[in-house]
Amino acid sequence: MKTTIDIANDLAVRAKELAAKRRTTFRAVVEEGLRMVLEGDRIATQYRLPDKSVQGRGLHREFRTKPWSDILETSYGGRGQ
């Protein structure tokens, strides 16, 4: 399909330079960029974080007033820090 679009001059210059460097066409560079954006958008909107909620009443009583560093220290026993 043929269409006309306005592109910022600096972007067009950079795309043409890339096309020359790759020994391809400006059109191919623009199409590749559009495909990347559209695929990225499809992937970003497709993922849904699974619900990993647990039943309970929050932190154990002994940790409710402790700083996060104390909770981490108890949880990991000094590993990974």
Could you please describe the fold and organization of this structure?
With 81 residues, this protein is mainly α. It has a domain at 9-46. 54% of the residues lie in helices and 0% in strands. The chain contains 3 helices and no strands. It has helices at residues 9-22, 26-46, 68-76. Helix 1 (9-22) crosses helix 2 (26-46).
Give the gist of this structure.
The protein has 81 residues and is mainly alpha-helical. It has helices at 9-22, 26-46, 68-76. Helix 1 (9-22) packs across helix 2 (26-46).
Task: Give the topology.
Elements: H1 9-22, H2 26-46, H3 68-76
Alpha-carbon distance between the two ends: 56 Å
- Approximate helicity band: 40-55%
Rg to the nearest angstrom? Answer: 26 Å
Describe the largest sheet: none
Q: Tally the beta strands.
A: 0
Uncertain stretches: none
Q: What is the percentage of strand-forming residues? A: under 5%
* H/E element sequence: HHH
Structural class: mainly alpha
Mean pLDDT: 87
What is the number of helices? 3
Principal-axis shape equals: elongated
Which terms would index this structure?
81 residues; mainly alpha; 3 helices; 54% helix; elongated
